[in-house]
Amino acid sequence: MRLLLDTHVLVWTISDSRRLSVAARKLLGDPDNELLCSVVSLWELAIKYSLRPAEIILDPRLLRRELLDNGFIELDVTGEHAVAIGQLPPLHKDPFDRLLVAQSLVEGITLVTADPRVAQYPGPVRRI
Predict the structure, then answer these.
(1) Which range of residues forms the domain containing residue 15?
(2) How many domains does the chain have?
(3) 3-state secondary structure of 107
(4) Is the pTM of this model over 0.90?
(5) DSSP letters of 57-104?
């Protein structure tokens, strides 16, 4: 299964956070699953890091390198992803989350999130 990790799940995974449940660890650790990280998450973290570096644990440049070194596949943003946002119901105002949902729909990838609002979107979204 192809899994696109929401930004917070991505950070939790790389930092081996206790916020990840046993079931989430099993899902993300399954070698049959392909893990993807979106440039949207890196963009979001880079903005937050530039505004509040003390609050963001990982430098986004180092995080990206860590992800690629650990076999994550980087998912670029396309025009198709951007226009798909217009078809989403207004369940969530965060533009980064909306773009991740659009990417998952367009690409047919399961978005893995802990955010209950994101999990309300129709389509391939899995709440952990």
Answers:
(1) 2-127
(2) 1
(3) helix
(4) yes
(5) SS-HHHHHHHHHHTTPEEE---HHHHHHGGGS-SS---HHHHHHHHHH
Q: What are phi and psi of 110, to 5 degrees?
A: -80, 125
Residue pair 10/67 in contact by the 8 Å Cβ criterion:
yes
Query: Domain with 103 in it: what CATH number?
Result: 3.40.50.1010
**Tens of pLDDT along 39-95?**
999 999 999 998 987 777 788 999 999 999 999 999 999 999 999 999 999 998 999
Model confidence band, residue 123 (pLDDT cutoffs 50, 70, 90): confident
How far CA 36 is from CA of 55, 62, 68, 86, 108, in Å, comes to: 24, 17, 10, 23, 12
Length of the chain: 128
